[in-house]
Amino acid sequence: MAEFFSFFWIVPTHGFRWVRAKDEHTGVEEDYLATSEPEDIATYRAYLPLHMFTGLFRTFADTPPTKEGILHFANKYGHLCEMQYVVPVDYKGRQARAAAEPLSFWQQQIWDMRLAVELWDAVQARDVAALGRRLTWTEGPGGTGILYDTHLTGDSGEPRYTEWIAAPNIHPERLKRFARGDLVMPALYRLQRVVNEHLRGQLSPVLGWDEHGSNLGLHVFPQSLIGALWLQFARAITGRKAYRRCEECGTWFEVSPEAARTNRIYCSNACRTKAYRRRKVQAQEMYAAGKTVTEIAEALGSDEATVAGWIKEEA
Ligand SMILES: [Zn+2]
Prior knowledge:
The protein has helices at residues 49-52, 56-62, 67-77, 103-124, 128-132, 172-177, 184-199, 225-239, 269-288, 293-300, 304-314, and strands at 9-12, 16-22, 29-35, 44-47, 85-91, 94-102, 135-140, 143-149, 162-166, 203-209, 216-222, 243-245, 252-254. The protein is of the alpha+beta class. The strands form 5 sheets. Strands 2-3-6-5 form a 4-stranded antiparallel β-sheet. A 3-stranded antiparallel β-sheet has the order 7-8-9. A two-stranded antiparallel ribbon has the order 1-4. A hairpin with a 2-residue loop joins strand 7 (135-140) and strand 8 (143-149). Zinc ion (ZN) binds next to loops.
């Protein structure tokens, strides 16, 4: 196993909850994500995010930036970084201080990842319409330049943000590299900037073992889950990796040839088994409701022999 994949993260066994609190240092009142149990009695499970979830950055990008969506993600994959905020929490009448992460921080991180992934997808697909939603050649400082604009409303953490990627008076050296009207190169510059911004401070260089465990090499290693997600995304960009969303659970996973997987529709054997069982029950229910074997096979994308077998099992 390459060093990169040995990164582990912990998740509290009883998950997280939202608390309304004031940060002790800033005094700002906000919703904070804190462990469901006081830290002195909380228990944790450890897992290997990069090894087990090869497309986790995409799952994160897809997470609804709501309290519900974030809680669901956190209960499965853990908090994002070393929690710097300390807030007072009422644990069933017992007052305690807890490390916590503000809702606004989560929302910003999800949006940053979502916008970056969307931009990368548009670059790979050479999707001019999608690129044009965020990038515009227009009049800027000193003449025509290329502007990045999220064009978002600013609600629920949506980042309302503009930045000149290049104009005659801003990074003129870049302007020379761009063909007028091109959106792909400017998008890559935007991606480079946002990924680097997020990698900064979240990774450290380490001497680690190669895949065979025989040679030491210089690696970067994440120090937090959010660092791991951006590193995974950075590797997706440099490795031009492809991903698919599990039809059963919605988790993203890598489908590149190097991620040798026998199963290409589901993220895991567990999901494949679950989907199979679900289809079987569905077939039996449809049969009981009077559908023919042919109709059922067509509806479930299966063949008649398989469907007939399932119905026989039930009878
Ligand atoms: Zn799955």
